[in-house]
Design brief:
Layout lengths: L26 H17 L8 E2 L1 H8 L3 H13 L3 E4 L3 E4 L4 H25 L5 H12 L8 H18 L3 H19 L5 H19 L3 H20 L9
Antiparallel strand pairs: 1-3, 2-3
Helix pairs in contact: 1-3, 4-6, 4-7, 4-8, 4-9, 5-6, 6-7, 8-9
Length: 242
């Protein structure tokens, strides 16, 4: 039996409360909202790779039509987050080892460029203040971080670096690439020493960006992502879609 789909947010309220209740709401807006709530649930680990998505659950939780849910599933499938299986419906995608390897090969190059651009643009506009504000929030403070908290802060950190690089096309490419990798990672369990190692990488990257050292920032980011790829790819076969 399929597990119930949970897209309730951390406040305990339905994540898409009010969807469909606003008079005259356009179908496209409703579908977009469903997609966003599903993405949030996947990133938070409330929906995990391999889990079947039950349309009836979503129509009840979100107060939307089955047609809107089916359309949202189509978009999520196009984004590589959901598999549509004949006679079985939708299922959160499980990535193969080769797929994860290929995604990281691309991500290393793109985010390396993102870190390089961030260092080059750090003193333009409010970029330095913006990065420092996020760094103050996400930098290690000596306390023990939960896996879910680390994943959330890690995502903010990486998004900010790409954002201050001032290349919107690169930002979109990385976002599209990042989501399936994060989706894969939230289904895993990261050892505390791996979180500590990742924090050390983040410090090295931040120092290079704040110093405006583009080459060092690029190298630090690429090394960081290679280490992440190495950890993920050594996971047992049960973590992957074979």
């Amino acid at each position: 039996m399929a597990a119930s789909v949970d897209v309730i947010d951390e406040t305990g309220r339905p994540s898409a409360a009010g969807l469909g209740s606003a008079a005259g709401a356009r179908r496209g807006k409703i579908v977009d909202d469903i997609i966003e709530r599903m993405r949030e649930a996947i990133l938070a680990g409330r929906i995990v790779p391999g889990q079947r998505l039950v349309a009836n659950d979503l129509t009840t939780q979100l107060g939307v039509s089955r047609g809107s849910v089916r359309e949202a599933f189509q978009h999520l499938a196009a984004d590589g987050l959901v598999d549509l299986i004949p006679n079985r419906g939708a299922m959160v995608r499980r990535l193969s080892r080769d797929h994860v390897r290929e995604l990281f090969e691309i991500r290393i190059n793109l985010e390396g460029l993102g870190a390089k651009l961030a260092a080059e643009h750090i003193d333009e506009g409010d970029h330095r203040a913006r990065f420092l504000a996020v760094w103050e929030e996400t930098k290690p403070d000596g306390s023990s971080w939960s896996w879910s908290n680390f994943m959330r802060q890690n995502r903010i950190y990486h998004q900010t670096i790409v954002g201050i690089g001032a290349n919107k096309q690169l930002s979109q490419l990385i976002e599209n690439l990042h989501l399936p990798i994060v989706m894969f990672q939230v289904g895993q369990s990261m050892q505390p020493d791996k979180i500590v190692s990742s924090h050390k990488d983040h410090i090295r990257i931040a120092d290079a960006i704040l110093a405006g050292d583009a080459a060092a920032a690029q190298n630090a980011m690429e090394d960081h992502l290679r280490a992440s790829a190495s950890w993920i790819l050594q996971l047992p076969d049960t973590a992957f879609n074979l």
